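yo

u said u wanted the structure for the complex thing, so here. seqs first:
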Amino acid sequence: MAIMMPAADQAVLARRSEIVAALRAIVSGEGVIDSAAEMRVYESDGLTAYRQPPMVVVLPDTTEQVSLVLKYCAEQGIKVVPRGSGTSLSGGALPLEDGVLLGLGKFKRIREIDFDNRVVVTEPGVTNLAISQAVAHAGFYYAPDPSSQIACSIGGNVAENSGGVHCLKYGMTTNNVLGCEIVLMSGEILRIGGKSAENAGYDLMGVITGSEGLLGVITEITVRILQKPETARALMVGFAQVEAAGECVARIIGAGIIPGGMEMMDKPAIHAAEAFVHAGYPLDVEALLIIELDGPGVEVDELIKRVEAIAQGCGSTTCQISTSEAERNLFWAGRKAAFPAVGRISPDYLCMDGTIPRGALPKALARIRELSEKYQLGCANVFHAGDGNLHPLILYDANKPGEIERAEAFGADILRACVEFGGVLTGEHGVGIEKRDLMGDMFSEIDLNQQQRLKCAFDAQGLLNPGKVFPTLHRCAELGRMHVHAGKLAFPDLPRF
Amino acid sequence: MDTLKVRDAKDVEEVVRAAIASEQPLEIIGHGSKRGIGHVMATNAVLDVSALNAVTSYEPNELIITLQAGAPLADVLSLIDAKSQQFAFEPMNTAPLLGTPGLGTIGGMIAAGLAGPRRIKAGGARDHLLGAHAVSGFGDSFKTGGKVVKNVTGYDLCKLLAGSWGTLSVMTEVTLKVMPKPESERTLLLRGLDDAVANKAMTAALGSPFDVSGAAHLPKSAFRERAEGLGDIATQGEALTALRLEGITASAAHRAVSLREALAPFGTADIVEDAASAALWAAIRDVLPFGADGALGAWPVWRVVCPPASGAAIGRQLARETGGDVIYDWGGGLIWAAVPPKGDAQAAIVRQRAEAVGGHAMLVRATEEVRRNVDVFHPQAPGVAALGERVRVSFDPKTILNRGRLKRGEA
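structre next:
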């Protein structure tokens, strides 16, 4: 366990029963959970290597209750960790020993479907997929589609700015959310944006999205919905070298084609997936691309031809083109099951999530191979090739002493390499606790201070989800202090007009 | 008043730090093309970033370009156009509307965040700003975001910088997403529809699977004397509803026919192609019918953003109650309203109508005198305004940067 959480406030813990009683006065009955056995399901999220039971769990079902809980906690100096479905892969919803875990699971209602304005107004506990299902009868869907879409909540998607395989063409959560109702740590309820394309004033919705539950608790969200493309077809293309596959991706983009999805898998990932789902993946290739084109039939047919020609020009060794929905789904089945497939060949795995410039792919994979040697741990790579988002899956066995530590060190080195190659620490899973201590590899102290000042504008006491995202916490008073830079007041060298 | 022409990010830091120490606010400008938008500022010196004009890197295959903030937009558009790429949000050229020369700089484009017709499909400036280096009102150079399209590392401060009108930080270098230009475009033209029916036609088109990338309506009154910039497409005295389809040629042509069939209940659409289509959308993007040189050149112009299906209802009210003219873009979600001149630019009517449907209104063009009397930017609900102010202070506690631009009376 390399990551340390903030020290628990013993004074708060000593008042636990009083706090539970106060929360019960706000949320009655089963909405407050304080027994160790019942709280166990909340002790971790999708980053299961880290576990911590909360002080108490509260499950409000109205915005007013959320507001009262936060107001009470703010007044009492009690930390709060918000949680949606608990599918975060970066530990964003990891509880704190001295914190209230605020679950939004009871916010399960879609409040309004407005086809004329092409939006859905929903509560945050609704799953990503349920939104698409609710509008499917009219041919609409909600575009961002993280792999966990069956389970993950739309509130969590907003908190993490979730992506998915189609975000190259259709954007991430931030590009598909128009407004929200948010409760600040003070208990204040605000409405940001709505059904209009843009808000007045600063783009607060833009900065709330992806803020990992540190700025406020979202109780309602307005998302854009789109009409489903007429058709979609996929190509499955194999290459004898990773470099050739990388070149193919670059040439497709260079030719002005933005596929609906463009995924790459390396040999270990291909083998694991094929053994699991029997999708008919070629086993003698070093890299496999799945390229999906969507739109009107006439467009898809034409682009399939163009992509096929580009792939051949890059030396593809196999190329299959889907001729039916069943076949297209089969191509995807292996990719979509890549994580559980890897789970079958290794007792445990760590799923990493860095982004690199597409052109750096061969370099990045070569580095991962070196690191795999160095740490003596296997690694399978799946990759949102279109947007440079890498998901190395580091294989380890938690029962073998020292392996988890080696796996974490391996993962950290991969993410540092992503930054070194011009990329970033996380493309879609969030910083959470997982990459928190690597933030200094990408950002200077000045960069991080500016981010924390923004946090102060929303939560001056730092009570909402502390210990996530930022490696070092500063008091808002200290961050807001203006350092007058002594000395030069004039600008001696500057041309004046 | 001093104009300080900075050469690099270090200079910007130095100027801002000196301004903090002497508590002298700065006006941030590139080419000054949008200087007439916003309130009159209380600034004692001008920080001119136009010499920060380099293209740091352009990687067409990565779909990104990194530029210094003072890079001239016109040059950058030519550069990316040569690789058949574009800024998909169609940044507006404010020159015709404001009667000022030039497209301005990249920094101005982002700080203003005025997106064109494709906003309904591709998003706005905020959706294309991937990373930035900027100097805050603390006098510190910081970076946010990165140089890749997919990134969730830390708060997305880029979203705040886009549309902040230079009040949060001085951007020095930015990385923007570029997208391939469509091979071909088609525009369906329906003629003679009244605003309410046109709004329904646009709603139907945007709710179709044909991937419409522009939906605008020009009521007949929008062509007072001549149809500025609209060439042969518009006929005086006849309303025009335009729907754009872009993509590879076969696809755009196919979808144009399909959409025409789907919209048959609204009339028989003409189809115009490529150059003629592009000229029409440039005219709509830049609001040429209300251009500074045209018949309505002396009228104040409002930019009302609202839920798209409500567009016609409030657009009609605005036109009737102010005696003005309106143009609809974004399927009804953006209304440009030119209103007969009055001391307050008829703000009460415009704002009341916008708010009634959950929209907001910004006064884009007005004389300095009018801008002293009227809030240029839409006043927000108190709680949201207070949060916005705390956010601003978190970047610029001494209000050194563009003091007074967003808020009347702050100067």
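The radius of gyration of chain B is 21 Å. Chain B touches chain A through 103 residues (CB under 8 Å).
cya
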